[in-house]
Write a structure and sequence with these properties.
CATH class of the domain at 201-388: Alpha Beta
Structural class: alpha/beta
Strand order of the largest sheet: 14-13-12-15-17-16
Number of strands: 28
Number of helices: 14
CATH architecture of the domain at 201-388: 2-Layer Sandwich
Radius of gyration: 29 Å
Strand content: 15-25%
Oligomer: single chain
């Protein structure tokens, strides 16, 4: 028998001991990080709520989404239910008029599945992509408090995949941020607005080139994308660069609303949570691009150029630039500062798709039209392209109405521009029953012997869509009708001076208050000041305007007489007013198709005179006058 050497024995014993110690450590880690209710098929067998539970696409049961790297116990929400006690839940969860009975432990995303409501995600509901933001309109206290993943959200916004329902006795109502209101996607062709076909992207002998530089093999299509990125809405045109035709028009609500409803709030938010606003927008845009690909049977690599129009803040966020300087005097972007200092030759931007994270050809380029000055951004430059400004000899006026309204007066020889921080009141912000232009929004009213007759979006009669509130055109219509029928003074005081709230549609609970009127008065005054001061600065009066080009979302649906009577629009003769729809997307599309138009607008914007309204000596007096619901004077 071979004698065992003591040293060798000790060495082997030590090795075996180490192996067992590692097994113990591994078992301990498994006990800490792998939930005991997770079986070998990664299915959850627990009988209580857990944030890691996910519905299985087919069949029954729940999938465990735990990654076995974090302590699973923090995801457990409730103790196992007492099988001897009956639980009578009375609460429901609602979205877009659909309701579902509440059960504990499920996320808002789970209920979105139950209600067949589409909520975007690309991280399999782990809280990493930040795409599934929803607004909790009612029942926030019934949800588990926000966790660290949701630290970037405020007010009533939550991540659907992280918001777990705890209280099943109270009603909850939510809505996804990515909805599709009535967004103006078309534009009216104006004189000289036809576009010659001369894009930067071409192909020859099976080779695709950008600006005469080969970038790809020809795959069957040459597509470009024109974008209008507004504070409230986003519009995307998919354009065939070989024939100039628009293949597809897509639109959606800007998902950045969780960062505030106006520009200044977005700037402040981006300073605190840098990158979150951009991240949500890029995710939404990429989702839209992939839907286009599926719908029209092409691959994203066939998109070779993207042209962007948008206000200064939206544009610079999109291009990964710091926007804090835009929120501080003199309200100029870093790009404009560099241009004024002579370190940049233009305020336009060109960037690679790959750097911006957009799903297109890896060698595709993204171009933004130039800024004019301050808050008068690339969207106004696109507007000017759409009306073919170099051919305008007579004095014209452009009013692009939105959260930030821009006003331009002049012709091809001289032009004056200004921006008006109107805010979101006419898009529903700060108005008790105000709302965007969703189905069910009241878009026009008539006061008839004390009774309000109305029309809603989605139906020409009240029976078509149940009224839920008033959109911008409906609010302007209401204000004009109240004034015409002496139900409200120019200062927003009701006929019964003691009345603070007026019941509009008692059967639907819709009211209008003095506070609503005050908020609308201030928003209207911003539009009033912009038009009044720019006209006066240029040296003309409303009747001198040969054409008033009215651009933007709800402006297309506004009754002109109503808008003029309350001072929302300058009293230009109605015959001279031209509603040109979404001129920004039309201009972006024209630039995508014409290198000449790109060069023309780059040169033209350098000569536009910009004025800061608040630096005008009598600005406050004009603003106070503009707060009244009455027409603007015909002489300035």
């Amino acid at each position: 028998m071979k004698k065992i050497e003591k040293a060798e024995y000790e060495k082997r014993l030590s090795k075996i001991t180490q192996i067992f110690e590692e097994l113990v450590v591994h078992a301990d880690e498994q006990a800490t990080y792998r939930c005991p209710y997770k079986n070998r098929f990664d299915h959850c067998t627990a009988k209580f709520g857990c944030r890691n539970q996910r519905k299985i696409d087919e069949g029954t049961g729940l999938l465990c989404a735990g990654d076995d790297k974090l302590d699973y116990r923090s995801a457990w929400e409730t103790d196992a239910p007492d099988s001897t006690a009956e639980k009578h839940n009375t609460g429901t969860i609602t979205c877009d008029g659909q309701a579902h009975q509440l059960t504990p432990g499920k996320t808002i995303f789970d209920y979105a599945d139950d209600l067949t409501v589409q909520v975007p995600t690309s991280c399999f509901r782990t809280g990493q992509c930040h795409e599934c933001i929803v607004e909790i309109k009612r029942g926030m206290d019934s949800l588990q408090p926000p966790n660290e993943t949701e630290a970037f959200l405020g007010d009533n916004y939550r991540l659907a995949c992280q918001a777990v329902v705890l209280d099943i006795d109270e009603d909850i109502e939510f809505t996804p941020l990515r909805r599709t209101p009535r967004i103006l996607t078309h534009a009216i062709t104006t004189t000289g607005g036809t576009s010659e076909l001369n894009p930067r992207v071409t192909h020859r002998d099976g080779v695709v080139s950008y600006n005469n530089e080969p970038i790809d093999r020809y795959r069957g299509h040459l597509y470009g994308l024109a974008l209008d990125i507004g504070t409230t809405t986003v519009v995307a045109n998919l354009v065939d660069l070989e024939n100039g035709k628009t293949v597809s028009v897509s639109s959606f609500e800007n998902p950045q609303r969780f960062g505030g409803s106006d520009i200044m709030n977005r700037i402040s938010y981006d300073g605190e949570f840098e990158g979150e606003l951009r991240r949500s927008l890029i995710a939404a845009l990429n989702s839209e691009i992939m839907e286009m690909c599926e719908r029209y049977n092409f691959v994203r690599q066939e998109i070779y150029e993207i042209v962007v129009a948008g206000n200064t803040t939206m544009r610079d966020i999109f291009f990964k630039h710091n926007v804090q300087s835009i929120g501080q005097k003199p309200y100029k972007s870093l790009i404009e500062h560099a241009y004024r200092e002579g370190t940049r030759s233009t305020t336009s931007l060109t960037e690679k798709v790959r750097r911006l994270g957009i799903r297109a050809n890896p060698k595709a380029m993204v171009y933004s039209l130039p800024l004019i000055a301050s808050h008068v951004g690339a969207d106004v430059a696109a507007d000017l392209v759409s009306i073919d400004i170099p051919s305008q000899d007579e004095v014209i006026m452009l009013v692009d109405v939105g959260t930030n309204t821009e006003v331009v007066v002049g012709n091809a020889k001289r032009m004056v521009a200004a921006s008006c921080p109107a805010g979101p009141a006419f898009e529903g912000g700060g108005i008790e029953y105000g709302m965007p232009a969703y189905p069910g929004a009241i878009e026009s009213v008539k006061w008839n012997e004390g009774q309000l007759n109305y029309e809603t979006i989605g139906g020409e009669t009240p029976e078509g869509e149940t009224p839920q509130g008033l959109c911008g055109s409906g609010l302007i219509s209401l204000l004009a009708e109240l004034r015409r029928n002496d139900q409200m003074s120019p200062k927003g005081v009701f006929a019964d001076r003691k009345q603070r709230v007026m019941s509009l549609l008692p059967e639907h609970g819709i009211t209008f208050s003095r506070e609503d009127a005050s908020n609308l008065a201030q928003a209207k005054a911003a539009n009033y000041c912009g038009q009044y001061i720019v006209l006066r600065h240029f040296g003309c009066v409303p009747k001198d305007i040969s054409k008033l080009f009215l651009a933007g979302g709800f402006a297309n649906y506004v009754n002109l007489q109503d808008a003029i009577e309350i001072g929302f629009l300058a009293p230009v003769p109605e015959a001279n007013v031209v509603k040109i729809g979404n001129a920004a997307i039309a201009g972006a599309t024209a630039v995508l198709l014409s290198d000449k138009k790109r060069a023309d607008i780059e040169a033209f914007v350098n000569n536009i005179e910009h004025i800061e309204l608040e630096t005008t000596p009598d600005f406050f007096d004009v603003f106070v006058e503009g707060c009244q619901f009455k027409p603007m004077p015909v002489t300035l």
